[in-house]
Amino acid sequence: xxxxxxxxxxxxxxxxxxxxxxxxxxxxxxxxxxxxxxxxxxxxxxxxxxxxxxxxxxxxxxxxxxxxxxxxxxxxxxxxxxxxxxxxxxxxxxxxxxxxxxxxxxxxxxxxxxxxxxxxxxxxxxxxxxxxxxxxxxxxxxxxxxxxxxxxxxxxxxxxxxxxxxxxxxxxxxxxxxxxxxxxxxxxxxxxxxxxxxxxxxxxxxxxxxxxxxxxxxxxxxxxxxxxxxxxxxxxxxxxxxxxxxxxxxxxxxxxxxxxxxxxxxxxxxxxxxxxxxxxxxxxxxxxxxxxxxxxxxxxxxxxxxxxxxxxxxxxxxxxxxxxxxxxxxxxxxxxxxxxxxxxxxxxxxxxxxxxxxxxxxxxxxxxxxxxxxxxxxxxxxxxxxxxxxxxxxxxxxxxxxxxxxxxxxxxxxxxxxxxxxxxxxxxxxxxxxxxxxxxxxxxxxxxxxxxxxxxxxxxxxxxxxxxxxxxxxxxxxxxxxxxxxxxxxxxxxxxxxxx
Length: 500
Fold this sequence. Notes:
Number of helices: 18
InterPro entries: TraG_N_Proteobacteria
Keywords: Membrane, Transmembrane, Transmembrane helix
Protein name: Conjugal transfer protein TraG
Shape: elongated
Number of strands: 4
Distance between the termini: 59 Å
Largest sheet: 2 strands, parallel
Order of helices and strands: EHHHEEHHEHHHHHHHHHHHHH
Helix content: 55-70%
Strand content: under 5%
């Protein structure tokens, strides 16, 4: 048996362990026979109710008894009796997608759920033949469907992890503040005094402390130096001539202070990012310098989520051909409203994305636990078995829809921000801002909309499990989504109180 998430890896074994316990209780108490007895009585009463023209009522009842008994025996043998033994050694965490796309993932024992290994690591369970077959086929179909999607780094997840990387070292945080005051601020002030004519790319570059312009242009970071001693650099008489030697360190140049390969601020800041993030960034097709600069800009600058503000991607249906002042004003108001809504919505979407696989794993465990009770209460009805089969397949196949939503999200983000339209200015820029915001809203909701569509499609096929599963998944992620939006709500309230 294979699983697609860490939580599913452990909860699958737990679910079948509880399932075995419930079936043991049902068989040891004789409860399993009551529904069958009630069904046989119903068949007997139905046979007695037949008219005289039906012929031999006893023979008819016997035939019906045999049909009910044989069908019940088949259902019990294949869907209730545990036969195939499973444990944490036979349950495998699926890494086929990671191998296909060339990245590595940690094993469950190396994840945050590793403590569960000691809790249930010694447990064994047994799975009925039918459900083992359904699980294997469902996972196989899901993996095959996911493998048809081109490999694409999850840009939104990368952005989420980078934006939530914090400078936890107070010494490094203070050093960054010192660098701004002693290096960046003087260099920026000198640049303004000289009234240099900068190109568009250079103007963007000098907007952060690791500016290549300040690093490589004579008269800036090469001549500016730390104004307070730095313990990581010993006092150098040739370099620090004329500066007081307090015995607590030297005075490196700003260029050395930032880019030194061993003790520079740049390398120490980059080490804060998880290795898995760098692994994904390497697959973006950008140079190392480009994605390192993007990460550094996020780490050292207080940045809010922003979408493109330059260039036009495509004209949305909300646009107007006639660019009158009224249309521009309404467009601007709508964009501002969406931006404020996005402050609360985007963290909620991130929380929802994290919660969905967890909800899926818990629902699968709940379904596994309920199987013996459902089968017994249905009096071993084959229709019930088919319905539960489709429910299990539908839950497992949700993984593909989330992979598809993630791929679409990453592809659109890549197409949106890699285009030249986002590095040039045009008069329709305000429309571009709204369209970009709308894309973020739409793709965030796709993680719920696509599974909802899938459940509805099952209803078209006559499988009445869609509504229940959809409501369960929606309710399971509602609290996580609401919690994710709390941060945005706090920002909005803070902004409104500031204006007052």
